[in-house]
């Protein structure tokens, strides 16, 4: 094989690998790789680290989840990472929704996709249970 033929084959092989890599990066993945599994923990609402949960509209991010108190006093918990680029979402209490500050994806209080570049992918919702000043979050 002469040099010209070798370089032509090398170029084709490199182009094929590059194209395959790009196609994989652009494919839609339905799984959020930062979604916590086996969730079951309790938050002490008297603990200073959880103080914002005592205020309607307040939220914290803990163990990969965002936990929030609605303006009506109930508690919500969803996966904190936006499915678009894994940036932590925020809770907008006045609108009872979650918002990604990086590219403006919006999600309902249950984590369902509303709009934005998250492209139809939602947040995973978790259950909550309040017993006195202990808030349990679980799958």
Task: Please outline the major beta sheet.
Answer: 6 strands, antiparallel
Helix-strand category: alpha+beta
Report the top-level CATH class: Mainly Beta
Strand order of the largest sheet: 1-10-9-4-3-2
Describe this structure in words.
This protein is of the alpha+beta class. It has a single domain, classed as Rieske Iron-sulfur Protein, CATH 2.102.10.10. It is 17% helix and 31% strand. It contains one helix and ten strands, in the order αββββββββββ. The strands form two sheets. The protein has a six-stranded antiparallel β-sheet with strand order 1-10-9-4-3-2, with no helix packed on it.
Short structural description:
With 139 residues, the protein is of the alpha+beta class. It has one helix spanning 3-26; strands at residues 40-44, 59-62, 65-69, 75-79, 90-92, 97-99, 106-108, 113-115, 125-131, 134-138.
List the helices and strands and how they pair.
Layout: H1 3-26, E1 40-44, E2 59-62, E3 65-69, E4 75-79, E5 90-92, E6 97-99, E7 106-108, E8 113-115, E9 125-131, E10 134-138
Antiparallel strand pairs: 1-10, 2-3, 3-4, 4-9, 5-6, 6-7, 7-8, 9-10
Main features:
Rieske Iron-sulfur Protein; 17% helix; 139 residues; six-stranded antiparallel sheet; 31% strand; 1 helix; 10 strands; alpha+beta; four-stranded antiparallel sheet
């Amino acid at each position: 094989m002469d040099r010209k033929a070798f370089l032509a084959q090398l170029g084709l092989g490199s182009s094929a690998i590059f194209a395959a890599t790009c196609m994989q990066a652009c494919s839609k993945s339905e799984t959020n790789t930062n979604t916590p599994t086996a969730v079951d923990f309790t938050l002490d609402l008297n603990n200073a680290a959880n103080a914002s949960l005592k205020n309607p509209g307040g939220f914290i991010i803990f163990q990969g989840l965002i936990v929030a108190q609605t303006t009506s006093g109930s508690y919500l918990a969803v996966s904190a990472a936006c499915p678009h680029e894994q940036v932590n979402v925020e809770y907008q209490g006045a609108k009872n929704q979650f918002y990604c500050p990086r590219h403006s994806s919006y999600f309902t209080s249950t984590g369902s996709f509303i709009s934005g570049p998250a492209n139809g992918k939602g947040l995973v919702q978790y259950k909550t249970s309040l017993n006195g000043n202990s808030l349990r979050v679980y799958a």
